[in-house]
Design a protein that fits this description.
The protein has helices at 46-53, 90-101, 127-134, 151-157, 173-184, 232-250; strands spanning 27-33, 57-63, 76-77, 87-88, 113-124, 138-143, 160-163, 217-218, 221-222. It is an alpha/beta fold. It folds into two domains: 8-184, Alpha/beta knot (3-Layer(aba) Sandwich), CATH 3.40.1280; 202-255, tRNA(m1g37)methyltransferase, domain 2 (Trp Operon Repressor, Chain A), CATH 1.10.1270.20. A five-stranded parallel beta sheet has the order 2-1-6-5-7, sandwiched between helices. A two-stranded antiparallel ribbon has the order 3-4. It has a two-stranded antiparallel ribbon with strand order 8-9. Helix 2 runs parallel beside helix 4. Bound molecules: S-adenosylmethionine. S-adenosylmethionine binds at residues 118-121, 143-145, 147-149, 163-165, 167-172, 175.
């Protein structure tokens, strides 16, 4: 069976063989999934689309079944010890990572490569981890399904086990989209303005300040007057206070550390 992948059109010549080009800052993202079609259009919009077009990043979704060796392309099997559901097998995942990232043990990955298992049991994804991922040369994301993934993947293969929050999804694909989106927008040049990422929520430990646009009066709801004055120092002060107030109200936990 030939390997199935999307986004082939933005792949550079020679890139397929996993030769990382040390001379560029480009991030390569490989997603391992049993549903590559899930990602067909999702990275075709807005900032992510522009970042891909500008060759800041390549994103490919790979069909895990391409790394099976049996004639039925089995990626899952019953859990040892009994219990409900199926478990994604270790062999094709190890083979996929070896083929995409050049190694199949976490200690053998060269610097700049992170192999991430999406899992509700992982450490919680946040802006700081997104920043680390954006600084990588290659990010390999493994999407689980069913009851999850054979634990030997978490034990010895991956560099990171990451959850996008304390809830259980049906599969790792939506989580992979979240991680990839958050990382790509932090790539230098991905946002319209170089400063925008540094003024967003979490960049300085606070939530973003509130934003308003026209009209100034929306059915009696007014834009704060200070924003209409053109007085930059006053506006900056107001925004800082408003960001602090919003953080206190919605995310007091951010102010504790
Ligand atoms: N049995 C697992 C448990 O209770 O921890 C849940 C498995 S879940 C139904 C199937 C797959 O969805 C997981 O292997 C993982 O890849 C993905 N997944 C579910 N919730 C997730 C989350 N909060 N963050 C990241 N991935 C998640």
């Amino acid at each position: 069976m030939s390997r199935t992948s999307w986004f082939g059109s933005i792949r550079r010549k020679g890139f397929w063989n996993c030769e990382i080009n040390e001379s560029t800052e480009m991030l390569r993202v490989d997603i391992i999934t049993i549903f590559p079609g899930f990602f067909r259009e999702v990275f075709d919009y807005g900032i992510i689309r522009r970042a891909r077009a500008a060759k800041l990043v390549t994103v490919e979704a790979h069909d895990l079944r391409a790394w099976t060796s049996d004639k039925h392309h089995m990626v899952d099997d019953r859990p040892f010890g009994g219990g409900d559901g199926m478990v994604l097998k270790a062999e094709p995942i190890f083979a996929a990572v070896e083929s995409l990232a050049g190694a199949s043990r976490r200690e053998d990955f060269p610097e700049g490569r992170r192999v991430v298992l999406l899992s509700p049991q992982g450490r919680t994804f946040n802006q700081s981890l997104a920043t680390e991922f954006a600084a990588c040369q290659q990010l390999v994301l493994i999407c689980g399904r069913y009851e999850g993934v054979d634990e030997r993947v978490a034990e010895t293969l991956v560099t990171d086990e990451v959850s996008i929050g304390d809830y259980v999804l049906s599969g790792g694909e939506p989580a992979a989209i979240v991680v990839v989106d958050a990382a790509i927008r932090l790539l230098p040049g991905a946002l319209g303005s170089e400063t925008s990422a540094t003024t967003e929520s979490f960049s300085d430990g606070l939530l973003d300040y509130p934003h308003y646009t026209r009209p100034t009066d929306f059915g009696g709801l007014q834009v704060p007057e200070v924003l209409l004055t053109g007085h930059h120092a006053e506006i900056a002060r107001w925004r800082r206070e408003a960001a602090l107030a919003k953080t206190k109200r919605n995310r007091p936990d951010l102010l504790k550390g």
